[in-house]
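Here we describe the complex-level prediction in full. Unlike the single-chain runs in Section 2.1, the two entities below were treated as one system.
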Amino acid sequence: MSRSELAPLAAAAVRDAAPLFAALGDETRLGLLLRLSTGGPGSIARLGARSHVSRQAVTKHLEVLAGAGLIRDSWQGRERVWEIDRARFADALDYLERISRQWDAALARLKTFVET
Amino acid sequence: MKNTDRIEKEMVLRAPRSRVWRALTDSREFSAWFGVKLEGEFAVGQSVKGPITIPGYTHVTMEVIVESLEPERLFAYRWHPYAIDPKQDYSAEPMTLVEFRLEEAPGGTRLSVVESGFDRLPAHRRDEAFRMNEPGWQGQLDNVRKHVEV
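The structure predicted for the assembly as a whole is:
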């Protein structure tokens, strides 16, 4: 094996990950994420409709989620609309695929090892 | 519904079952193809560990706990998958189970590998893993295949 098959975990990536863990570790925020993922893009009014927290608090929670890159906002007229960042979620689902490819590589080495 | 709990692989190796069994369960042979330097022998219930030898990962210690050793049939162990961040303590997390099953096949040995238990891992582990760079995994695999087939 002449070159690296796996790149080391960059320190920057670890730093980037911290806000994501923090963002997900809250019941209200998980609820907001769920609402966005099942109901599609929504305004603060819609997202906060069945919530026990104030509109200001909902906005704060949404901004934490946005800070972690999980959702993003856009302005539609005078309304601020939030939506899930699909790319981020697709990345998360990629996990098994990556481990799967490591197995492919390891088994290819095993094949060479026992067949020669 | 897409399965997120397990990975399954199967391949036929042009080598007898006894040869494949030795490559899997002799810890020195396992080390050679896997890319690790395990210290000690595999024994049921025992932990075996050692540093990864894959360039870029030599700071990582791999540890497996042997679950089954059924000669020429089943070799299984538990480990922490993708536990490559030395700053992270993985010991409290659930482990996945890796099972190697051997079977006679025309011209050699059918080997299946199943790794299961991913659904029990904490969500942040999946996040950590997808952040890894992936420099040409597929290309690397193709290189090995070409090398073997020629």
